[in-house]
Write a structure and sequence with these properties.
homotetramer; 369 residues; alpha+beta; Aminopeptidase; OB fold (Dihydrolipoamide Acetyltransferase, E2P); 2 domains; 10-stranded mixed beta sheet; 4-stranded antiparallel beta sheet; hydrolase (chains A, B, C, D); zinc (chains A, B, C, D); Succinylglutamate desuccinylase/aspartoacylase family protein (chains A, B, C, D); metal-binding (chains A, B, C, D)
Chain lengths: 369, 369, 369, 369
């Protein structure tokens, strides 16, 4: 098995220093799907690097069938950007743009292929789509007007992901239970990852890596379906949210790695070996039912609800404290509740919040996966 | 003439302090269009407050025909948020969301009105549209899931703007020449503002106040046009970019105020009085031709091009310095040029830039307004 | 018992909004020492507010003998200042100055009193010292050159603290075990707070509230001792570090409140009532032995040592991961150890660190309190 | 003439990337004092890099007599740290510590040398002092407890500066006229730099590079003077403030370079050649009279006074606007004045300020240099 490592240039600092990401390539045995896995695109979300560490160890003893590309610490700008003690890694500190909303997808390309190559073979269509996207990315990077910092990074990561049949993007929430973004067409395979909470998402593109990876294929499948042709969605892409940000636990990461292994084995990307994973109840909801809960007022917060556990209507998510009201006769605290049953997935990382701060995200109208 | 002032609550701090904006209402004489003007929604963009100061003085001696609502310092969260010496006022420091991308517009409402009320009078349609939007805003604010901080502010500003026939949003660029966003339908009136550079924008909605104000009316006009009915765009909305951020010059603001006065007089919102404004050449381009220029590399920047002046192809916009290359034999500096003629409108505020930093915005394929 | 509340103005925002702190005053029975307690001067350190909540409840049923002034959420600027999801509450975001290093102390005043009033009564000296400091604070606030933001706050808090005989400043660490800063002269009373880790500090002044409160009295005592006169240190001041920042647990805060109650009872500030507190081992070290441990390299961190537990020489504090080194042959991780026995007190809040980041603070050369 | 360049490692990012500074060494002709010049230690203060660019050109045609070490872009962490559009380069974003307050000086070493080597030759004393400081720096860097990020940088820069007889640290103010920090013993030489405003500073050490460079020599001179021995201050060190931050003008930098050349020629470090510099009036004051002016209230600011020009008592420095007061009857603006004559040196970079923001720094009780 050939394994190569590379330090890929994805930008340049004001001081002239190159900004680089580590890339590890396992050359497969020429069969089975190709896999691309990246971690830490949001700078504070480090746990995925520990997962990649374990995958590397596992792949050394169980060589993958298809090529695998691994990119830990995929966003050096986000990782190295501090503001106070914390990593300001979710958005570009200059522009405010989310690092995971800057990938490329042009639906017109899909429509053009569906129109011009409706009778081509699956392989021809797949090749044309990959080449078309690759050419658009190259054109963007070559523009005399330049491209923005976030895209220097995103487009170079995407070029690697574009060659894969399976794309996994390892994130975390702020303070969070493990959860998974599942494109609806891949719902049957979601359970393999061994993640308790699942959000089923449609074929829309809003700029994220998973969407950039599956949307072209999914929308091509949809466009050809309208013409009466069954065309499979040829790429699987998932975003895994592996717990809380600013937290690294390499032992825990082993279980996360095993879930990925089980999925890769199922897909034929890895040889079978024993993957001991516990049984768990897996819940899901649709994206429209994955709701944010915003603070109804300013205050200081005690987070009460247990993440990942179903919460009955009216049970408290949190208690909001108004310490400015002590002895004034005004209300000193209030419970935050919802009128419907939900499962809290994650909560805000700070105890002090303005009115309108996103305090929780919750599954609503949830069901068993 | 009745003038009232109010301190409108638009949010609450973690400490319990209300977040408020000042609102000044001139009650008009019951004729002429109603006007809404706000300034400083981006926290560092202060010059519009000086303009409102002058408008107040002018309105006292020249009472408006229609009601006027003025909101200076419209975003206290943005204005009061510092990071280092500068105001971090462009986006919410928690979420990274642009403060001027959080207004509300639901195109389905327009489609429903065009379908259900195609034969109603202009006045009935206008009333139904205003009421429909107002109801949606109230529903959002009343959600048991809450609404995000930026929308607590934006929706309350929008409720006031929704009652107006003319909406002006006063901004600035970073380091910038004066420029104006003009909805294409209002192109003939753009010159009245006395602003040299103009960007013609379509009816799309991306979350900004001007779009939130004109898109419903414009899209209703378009929808009814498809049914063969001519329906005027009943609301004018413009974003004025009055020079550079972090810079207040109240004397200069008088000229900006006079341009607005000339426009309001033309619209019948103000009585005629002499408005001495100089002649100027006014350029314009379409939004797709209003281009960002991103730095091709990291480095330190000398900004060379004069803002607002046409620049020939190949003439330098800036010089990028690589002081890490002194005596190394590598290139110590390079000129940044474009292969086509442009007019530089604004440039970045800092001298140190990463690769991909938005260095300039330029008019391209420009023409006389 | 008379209890009054006040909203004390301590500054003004750019938008003109007053910056205020809540002040709760319990009028005592005219005997026993006067007490001043504040919390949350560092914006992310919220737990002390929960303690003040419980003290208020306890004082209502057990009226204090002496006056008590309570100031929760004592730094609105720090509490409301976010950067990303977290509260940037440790230092002024404009100047970088620590909010708890801006109190006032002029040693020359102490030297002057020791010289000019060496034969005055204790009461006369105490009054002269209080009046002298109060006058200096007033003079600062009245300077035509103004005073900096942090001092507008600090000096107004200090004016209240100056009237007290006991000053408690409630803080937290980043991720932290409970610990206490104890002026050496008060060592015997430290155990009453029921805090396991204690740092014994000298009479130096570096700008903090505790120092500003005890240094004048302590240095006066030292100066008079040189002249052969025994003069007691008449003010006790402590900084309590009540666990981790960005974390509010009001139930836990009850135990913290009981420790304070036990101390206040011992000092005669509160009537005796049963205070059920568990036995614990209490460790201490001198300030020079309270050491920071800086990261020897950049990397991502697994924090391994249990806070508050003695750690043998060579036992790992943390593991530093270099995920850029996967499969390169370079070292993928290293343990961080120390050559001597320590007790880890707190650790850094983020998992990604530059070389030289303060990873831990530890007691060294520690002993039983 | 031998010229070498080096990329000196001064730290490591979380991602494992080395943090480096460029170092350019001109080997002199073995006579004349040795010179160390650095620029851009505060990340936003870039103009000094342009000066070093010109010095490099001048030294190529006029080889220095003594060794010269040049360090442009001396603080990569500060230069590359953005927050919003601006460089957050004045203090460490994690700790809040000023990058230019982290150099090393231990006065005990000076006292020891004055005691133990009072009769040694000048050369022996100089060597012992340099070796002593170098050893202390090495010991710090080798501590098993590590050293903080800012010191990883500062101590490595200081090791280079320690070998020089002349140390120049090139800074800028926020919005600023050119000014110079002059140690009092070097007052006669200050005029050579051709800088209009000069601040005379004492031998105290507060952590800055200039102080770290001259304090040991100056305090040694003072200590030996007390013993009756005349010992010259053997090192000259100055901080040059070359205009405004975030602004690079390489043409202007030529004049700044010529002032340095004139000083170096006078000191015998460079051969004589014609240095055409204009006459100017040069003012000075003592450090205690270099006063900050803090905003008396919150508001938005028009900066009125011309930097570098004497201002009579009562003449306005700025106008503070309260746009929240429009039409309320409250004061809409106020002038900021001082009761005494001053020369404004610099002002704050933003137009929106809290009460207590440092608006201006001014020379007071000034005189001709």
């Amino acid at each position: 098995m050939t394994v190569t490592t590379q330090s890929l240039v994805v930008g340049q600092q004001a001081t002239g220093t190159d900004i680089t990401v580590p890339v590890i390539r396992f050359q497969g045995q020429g069969r089975g799907p190709r896999t691309y896995i990246q971690a830490n695109v949001h700078g504070a979300e480090v746990q995925g690097n520990g997962v990649i560490h374990h995958l590397v160890q596992l792949f050394k003893t169980h060589p993958p069938f298809g090529d695998v590309v691994l990119v830990p610490m995929a966003n050096p700008l986000g990782i190295n950007q501090k503001s106070g003690e914390f990593t300001l890694g979710r958005f570009d500190p200059v522009s405010g743009e989310n690092w995971n909303r800057q990938y490329h997808f042009d639906p017109a390309l899909v429509q053009q292929l569906a129109r011009d190559m409706a009778d081509a073979s699956e392989q021809e269509l797949a090749q044309a789509l990959r080449q078309g996207i690759a050419r658009q990315i190259e054109d963007k990077l070559a523009s005399p007007f330049g491209v923005k910092s976030g895209q220097h990074l995103a487009l170079r990561l995407q070029k690697m992901a574009l060659e894969a049949d399976i794309v996994l993007d390892l994130h975390t929430g702020p303070i969070s239970a493990r959860h998974l973004y599942v494109p609806e067409y891949a719902r049957e395979r979601a359970h393999l990852f061994n993640i308790p909470l699942n959000i089923l998402i449609p074929s829309d593109f809003a700029g994220a890596m998973d969407e950039a990876s599956f949307s072209p294929w999914w929308q091509l499948s949809e466009a050809l379906a309208k013409q009466g042709r069954a065309f499979p969605v040829m790429v699987d892409a998932f975003t895994l949210e592996l717990g809380s940000q600013e937290y690294l636990n390499v032992e825990d990461a082993y279980r996360d790695a095993l879930g990925i292994v089980r999925y890769l084995q199922h897909r034929g990307a890895l040889p079978k070996f024993d993957v001991p994973l516990p049984e768990m109840t897996q819940y899901a909801c649709y994206l429209d039912d994955y709701r944010a809960v915003y603070s109804p007022c300013g205050g200081q917060i005690e987070y009460l609800a247990t993440l990942g556990q179903p919460l009955a209507p009216g049970e408290p998510l949190a208690r909001v404290w108004h310490f400015d009201a002590l002895m004034t006769g005004d209300r000193e605290s209030r419970e935050l509740t919802l009128p419907e049953a939900v499962i809290p997935v994650l909560h805000f990382a700070s105890a002090s919040v303005r009115q309108g701060t996103e305090l929780f995200k919750v599954l609503s109208h949830h069901f068993l996966l």
